Amino acid sequence: MTLVDLAAPPTVDPYPVEELELDLRWWAAANYLTVGQIYLADDALLDRPLTHADVKPRLLGHWGTSPGLSALYVQLNRLIRRTGTPCLYVAGPGHGGPALVANTWLEGTYSELYPAIGPDAAGVRALFRQFSTPGGISSHVGVATPGSVHEGGELGYALVHAAGAAFDHPDLLVACVVGDGEAETGPLSGSWKVPAFLDARRDGAVLPVLHLNGYKISSPTVWGRSSDEEVCSYLASQGWAPVVVSGDDPRLVFTDLEAALRGAHERIAEIQARARSGGEDLRPGWPAIVLRTPKGWTGPAVVDGVQVEGTSRAHQVPLSGVQTDDAHLALLERWLRSYSPELQFTAEGRLAPELAALAPDGDLRMGSTPYANGGRLRRPLDLPVLAGYAVDVPSPGTTSVETTHPLGELLAEVYRRTTTPDGGGDFRLFCPDETASNRLQSVFEVTDRCLQAEVLPTDDHLSPHGRVMEVLSEHLCEGWLEGYLLTGRHGMFATYEAFAMVSASMVVQHVKWLQHAADVPWRAPVSSLTILLTSTCWRNDHNGFSHQGPGLIDAVIPLSPAIVRVWLPPDANCLLSVADHCLRSTDHVNLLVADKQQHLQYLTLAEAAVHCAAGASVWEWAGTESDDGSAPDVVLAAAGDVPTLEVLAAAELLRREVPWLRVRMVNVVDLMGLLPPDVHPHGFTPEHFRELFTDDAEVVFAFHGYPRAVHSLLHGRPGAGRFHVRGFEEQGTTTTPFDMVVLNRMSRYHLVLAALEHARRTPEHGAALAAHCREMLLRHEDHIREHFEDMPEVRDWSWSG
Q: The Xylulose 5-phosphate/Fructose 6-phosphate phosphoketolase C-terminal domain covers which part of the protein (predicted)?
């Protein structure tokens, strides 16, 4: 047993023996309930000898990490009772779900939220029977687990979620358990940088507990086989001041862990008090704990002559033959009885009163904390009136601006309105070192980039107290924002489109969280996760093929229709309108795709509001339909800013060269509207779909992303085969903007050729126009190689009507 002091020594007050014994009894009760959830379908409190029939037919769950999770829960309860500190528990080893369920049942929260799982013998039986069974709960610490803001199924995000929860919550302590298997993942490895972004003046504290039990599912972990000095040296290099608690004797481990937590809390209080009284310490050395305990601690030591406790064999179900093997069944009963359930529970199956008294009061219970049910803390975002940020559009397609710049001005005002006197707030922008690159730099008129480091005269808008979060990691930006939203605040993640795929799996997991949260009645709505994708595949003039990839759209559109929204605003006013809607919304994942470069603008703010609310509109000013009500010969449709430009240029060519061809121009801003209304809540009604695309006209559709995405959405619509979609076809390089659309066969000339091919009527002079288009494509290729820029008639094009 060691308590390795690598920081300021913690204050070690006596831990009264009687209090230690009570804490160990709570731990025993938690371990009992954990094992029972994994194994038992009946005889929940061992009122008689176990039989094979009492065991579940399918044994699921993870025992190995659970005792350590419960030990920390016990000690955090003690800290909360002593100090009154609000505490959020983030369990990185998510498969330790039964341990967190057990502890929240013991503290009373579980039965309050789930009355069918009562605080008595019947409730214990129901608790066991629901675990990892159909219609019950999963084995993870997930949405249904009281006190959780973190789904532990996909490892790597515990510490980043913990940091997001701590930002702008100055009174909160976030205790984050990091398993040594999870510590091997890329996102978690990057997450140790939290001290470089945690402002003691206005943020809460993150207390990492690196739980090293030596093994993952079947092999040793890297850090489990590393020395204390190696582990602590690394953590110290990232800004932590770690102590190590290790051993297998519960009394000694509990004593040392209590001292370590007490010392960590005192150190955090000192850091925060100094910062909040005007002191400045950019590298204070935030406390961290390295906890080494055996895998499967207190479980069966040896099974069938093979060591189990302290090995990977304890990871999941240490006794796998209990349904049929008498010896295994006897071992299970001996294991369960080792926790003395008759001592921890009354005859009625209730927690013994002296143990129930160990739970903190009310919302200080970690299962009841409002920080884990952020909708209870959420307040509507104070958004300004959009008119002050609108682009003046005197006529369509003649004014050019950087589309995302007005949004940056709007977000600057949001910062002004939401910043509190102490420098905190409830809105943040998260961006991987690209805020200015993405033309959102107006936010720096109000606040700075955050970094807990010396500020040099050459630095640009950098401050330890800045509230724009820039770090060159999509994982950290995405995860910070998730933790921030789930604990009651608002924000936006802006990133280069291609590299949003780095964190695509995180987006998928967040959609799953929100999807299941909708079925948990006590979960209050939280602010939507809004992702702005810019620097898109069509406008990376100086970057190569690596920067060209619209794949996040494809990643999200198959997910829950109740959650996912994909927006493709064609201009700045539409982006303002959509962003305003998204920042007001709750329980959605919003994907906004808008390029940062100069683009023509088409709609006034009032027109944009109507267009975005409808999801798609016919732009009559761009078409050549007759007034007699006859159907168009062909429909040109666009979704996205560059596709809109090319469709309009194609429409103008058709208007000029074959004016008798009836052409309808449709712009789609709400991509999910293409789905039928019985599939997605935003799906266009059959009547609206007909008003846009008719019943039978051929549609040439220019799309921002991969064409297959549109085809998948149109499945189920009448005549889906009449849609001819052009989009990104994995063709790209360092080239001109127009060459990108040429390479991917989405240029105005390709669209005109497609329109002529699919129109109802073959127009006069159609062959001449087709020949002109092919000639222009050849001219384009020669021109860019000679002049390194697009042809003037393309580069300087604007709508002439």
A: 596-799
Helix (H, G, I), strand (E, B) or coil at 565: strand
Q: Work out the number of other CB atoms within 10 angstroms of the CB of residue 334.
A: 11
pTM above 0.85, yes or no: yes
Residue appearing with tokens 């009284």: 277
pLDDT tens digits, 497-551: 989 999 999 999 999 999 999 999 999 999 999 999 998 888 866 677 888 889 9
HSE, CB side, 13 Å, CA atoms: give it for residue 109.
26
Average pLDDT of the chain? Answer: 94
> Do 484 and 586 belong to one domain?
yes
**584 and 662 share one domain:** no
Co-location of 43 and 153 in the same domain: yes
Work out the angle at residue 327's Cα, subtended by the Cα atoms of residues 124 and 29, and round it to the nearest 5 degrees: 25
Supply the range of the domain harboring residue 702: 617-795
pLDDT at residue 8 in the model: 42
Residue identified by tokens 């940091």 is 163
Return the axis-axis angle of helices 326-337 and 17-39, rounded to nearest 10°: 150
CA distances from 734 to 183, 434, 546, 782, 796 (A): 38, 20, 10, 16, 21
For residues 234-238, average pLDDT: 97
How far apart are the C-alpha atoms of 309 and 215, rounded to whole Å?
Answer: 11
Taking the CA atoms of residue 248, residue 252, residue 256 and residue 262 in that order, the dihedral angle to the nearest 10 degrees is: 120
Question: What is the widest separation between alpha-carbon atoms in the chain?
Answer: 98
